[in-house]
Design goal:
α2 packs across α5, α3 runs antiparallel to α4 and α4 packs antiparallel against α5. By secondary structure, the chain is mainly alpha-helical. It starts with a helix and ends in a 14-residue tail after the last helix. The relative contact order is 0.08. The chain has ten helices and no strands.
């Protein structure tokens, strides 16, 4: 039985195990797992506050949020899916990580559209006095104060964009063009350069050179290297 139950995870069907890369993918996705459920649950309780029954609110709340959470999940999945089909070294290393992220987000989306509405339909209503007290209580805290100060500026910016639709298109186009040329200004590399504290020197003389001549040349190079204070150990091999 232990050999059976240990394989009951989604990655096993692709032939993968829970290792450093797959656990790293789960660590990346853990912060996004509850986002879809939070959005659906918030909309369900909003509809219940408007007077809908729990079951009606669960069905309507989930159906209203389904296109939005599917689109938001696909934006993240679209980043990791290409890594699964890459045939380079990067694809070989990050394939399992990408699969873990994609499987975790797909599972969170499925739960948000099925399990969360089902459970929300059977949650009891809050007492009306508690609901009134929660809505009548003034907002407190630093975060709410910052939001109150930023809200007028945000509303003013939205009105300007809505009055000039072409402005939004120009801003979006400028951002897209910058994403094409901006990476060229950045240093790009697959693995950062590291000091391995090891240097390999390969000396090749013309074919037919006697072995004692090759040994003499190598000894000269060895003498120069031993004079360097950074060199701690030398290992020399002459010939095959």
């Amino acid at each position: 039985p232990a050999g059976v139950y240990r394989r009951r995870h989604l990655l096993h069907f692709g032939g993968y195990t829970l290792n450093l890369m797959t656990l790293g993918g789960l660590a990346i996705a853990v912060g996004m797992l509850v986002d879809n459920a939070i959005v659906v649950l918030e909309n369900i309780f909003r509809l219940r506050g408007l007077g809908l029954s729990p079951k009606e609110a669960a069905v309507q709340g989930a159906s209203e949020m389904a296109p939005a959470i599917v689109a938001s999940t696909l934006t993240t999945v679209a980043v990791f899916v290409p890594l699964i089909f890459m045939r380079s070294l990067a694809g070989y290393l990050f394939k399992e990580l990408s699969l873990a992220v994609v499987c975790a987000l797909a599972a969170s989306l499925l739960v948000a559209l099925t399990v969360v509405p089902m459970l929300a339909a059977y949650l009891p209503d809050r007492p009306r006095s508690t609901a009134r007290a929660a809505t009548s209580r003034p907002a407190e805290g630093v975060h709410q104060g910052i939001a109150d100060r930023l809200t007028p500026h945000y509303a003013r910016a939205i009105r300007k964009v809505l009055r000039r639709p072409w402005l939004g298109v120009v801003i979006a186009g400028a951002c897209t063009i910058s994403l094409v040329f901006l990476p060229r200004l950045l240093d790009v590399g697959f693995v950062p350069e590291m000091d391995g504290s090891l240097v390999t020197i390969d000396i090749q003389l013309p074919p037919g050179t006697p072995l004692h001549t090759t040994d003499k040349v190598v000894r000269d190079v060895e003498a120069h290297l031993e004079a360097l204070p950074e060199v701690a150990l030398l290992s020399v091999q002459v010939g095959n």
